[in-house]
Structure formats: C-alpha cells, structure tokens
Amino acid sequence: MSGQTKRKGVANDASKGKKELPSEPFVPNAKTIAAIREARRGPLKRYRSVKALLKSLNADD
Asked: 1, 21, 23, 36: least CB-packed within 10 angstroms?
C-alpha cells in the first residue's frame, strides 16, 4: 500500500493529493422532501404496531 491511506468512507490517494467520496452524496427527490416537510410541520399519524401500519398501507391501495 505505498502512498495510499485507507479510511472508512473516504477514498484517499496521498500520492496524487486527491480526496474523494466513494459515491455521490444523497440528494432527496421531491417526494422525500415533501415527506420531510410534513414530518417537521407537526404530529404524524402513529400506529400501535408494524402490523397495523402495514394494514393501513394495504387499505390505501
């Protein structure tokens, strides 16, 4: 490993002086942004169990 240092999550090539992320950073789409805004606005619907949540999701289809 001459000239290279490995760190978790960052590609580092000391011989070339480059530091790059291994992939593009997460950029949320419009649906995700809308969900984040809704969550920040106020209380969201809660479910007593995962089973109840899934039942409600299936009822919406």
From this structure: 1
